[in-house]
Amino acid sequence: MKKIYLLFLLCFLAIYSCKSDEKIESVEAESSFVNFNIDAVPYAKLSTYAFFTGDLKNLNPNTKVIPYEPASSLFTDYALKKRFIWMPNGLKASYDADDKTLNFPVGTVLIKNFYYNTIQPGNTTKIIETRLMIRKSSGWIFAEYLWNDAQTEAELVTGTNFSSGSSKNISFKKDNGNVMTTDYRIPSETECLACHKLDNKPIPIGVKPQNLNITYNYPNGIKNQLQKLVDEGYLQSYPSNIVSTVNYKDTSKPLDIRLRSYLDINCAHCHQENARCDYRAIRLSFSQTTALSKIGVCVMADEPIDASLERIITPGNPAKSVMHFRLSSTDESNRMPLLGRTIVHDEGVDLLKQWINTLNQNCP
């Protein structure tokens, strides 16, 4: 009897063990992972990477594809953005300085999707483009993907007859209810480099510790973004005393901090040493703009518009400030930023105007 019972028990355990193994294998088979061969990228289709699971247009991130959002966002004709980071297994980025891009390892991919959720008619959602920056051993490269109208795929356009970029006519509704129509600019590789160039090499803009040192609402809870990267094995460590930018839309923050954060994300990548606009008189990175002269207060413009616009910032007088004029213009010969927008960012211009009106010093 004991022998029969023991035999039955062994058979039961064997069957249970097999079923357990089958369950584990099933989970592994259903799990999807990013497809990335550094020697083969950029791929012709965005879907080939498998950065996202399910319907591509839902942008549902795959395993280890980590969403992120800088404290303030670069203005791109009111486009919304969904950003992600993916890195090869076992590799980590390192911290250099608050205002320097994280030092990412070879194989890192930064993913930025541009979309609207109020496309007219009907307030529909439409993804326009996805931009990748891929870290190869030779440095960062750009890969621009243009979405089809069916929102089922995005095709690589970088390196084709797209060398001059293109435009896509769209109509969308702003938060205030106004409907805007514009030729949304999809940049060429040369145009991408114009803004992302430092020391004549391409470099990311927004992924600096000062911009990521804020919380993000992840599917499993709210967490500091830098800590999330550490927890995911994507970042070695970071200091606890980072001097950080803020969301320029947050009216609970001081006006000058909001403006400096706005200028940092929208303008500082060009207005710095060894970048596109390093010959100009201003330096607009967040770490430098504690000095009003760096923003241009009372500084004579290196390219005056006319006699009434001699200074970059004229205290108390937006109408006589070159920066206000350039941010308010859509003329390609006058507007700032030079690239990335075709329409005026009303909220950004208003923020600058408010700040200029608080200045009361007299210029020499």
UniProtKB/TrEMBL annotation:
Protein name: Cadherin-like domain-containing protein
